[in-house]
Amino acid sequence: MADRVFIIAEAGVNHDGSLADALAMIDVAAEAGADAVKFQTFRAEAALTARALKAEYQVTNTGEGGTQLDMVRRLELKPEDHPALVERCRARGIAFMSTAFDMDSLALVAGLGMPWIKIPSGDLTWGEMLIAAARVGPPLAVSTGMATLDEVRQALALIAWGRMRSDLPPDLETALAAFDTEAARAALKGQVVLLHCTTQYPAPLSAVNLRAMDTLRETFGLPVGYSDHTLGITVPIAAVARGAVMIEKHFTLSRDRQGPDHAASLEPDELAAMVRAIREVEQALGHAEKGPAFEEMANRIVARRSLVATRKVRAGEVWAPDMLTAKRPADGLEPHQAFALYGRPAGRDYQPDEAIEP
What pairing do the DSSP bridges indicate for beta strands 246-250 and 224-228? Predict the structure, then answer.
């Protein structure tokens, strides 16, 4: 990963099935300065059974019950819509991305020149999809919402298998054994970013646990990003300060619209504000070395102190604590050199407030 945070403006299904709105969302994401705009590509019947009920947040956000199948049928982008989306992204200078939720959709988006393949949190335990996605080519952004560390480890083992081999593992244990090798680690290096995530829309702050980013990074030795479902822009900005290399955030043309994700999404001006803030935090993060910045150097003599005499001192007098103090500017001995002077004779006469010479 480059030092620059990769910002994904998640359009998702907030176009409500309208190609015109999807194209408008590309314009919004580009104007906000995001690196990529991401949609979701699926065939409802390939991803859901009729018995899959809506999640509680989906019932709340859509204002109606029913099944996920009925809901997402209205949110599909047609396969023939994708070339227009890719072309608009190209024209606006922003990367196109779309998460595939079934194998046919993965095959569709695989040829669209995406910089990343996104694995959604809900598919972290779908081994064949993980292996297929690993073989597409681009690196993977793997969302870890709802996951335990063991589930993340299993997913990474299957991704590594897909990167290294052309067959399917005979069982999960074989893939896990292969994961504990240098070859598997090398297969993932530079090819996977783990996205910490809380799968709730909106996610309460108490459930965010940004410190889990550190755990993921330390456990698996991979770069970590953050897929955000909280309200506002505070948490993704904090995630960048904590070392996130990728940020994904839902946005919408208007939160007043009905749909499963609008309520937890940013409006256009908020998306732009988030991008600006992240770029500012990037600059402020700088490097890890502790030392005076170039811009500070001229202030050292002005802001720091040096040892001065508190009264007239005659040459030969023995220095004692009541004869010295520290005052600005720093044009003489550093104040902590006083300890070495106590008990020694003054080398010459000093006037009050005169800087002490070595």
Answer: parallel
pTM of the entire predicted model: 0.90
At 102-112, the pLDDT tens digits run: 999 999 999 99
Q: Please, which residues bridge with residue 53 across strands?
A: 67
Residues 6+ apart with CB under 8 A from 44: 69, 72, 73, 76
Nearest one of 104, 49, 43 to 75, comparing CA atoms: 43
**Distance, CA of 162 to chain centre:** 25
> Residue 259's pLDDT band (boundaries 50, 70, 90)?
confident
CA–CA dist 38, 13 (Å, integer): 10
* Dist CA 196 CA 199 (whole Å): 10
CA distance 311 to 298: 29
Strand partners, 143: 195
**CA atoms of 236 and 264, how far apart (whole Å):** 13
Give 136-152 pLDDT, tens digit per residue.
999 999 999 999 999 99
User: Of the candidates 209, 215, 173, 167, which has an alpha carbon nearest to the alpha carbon of residue 194?
Assistant: 215
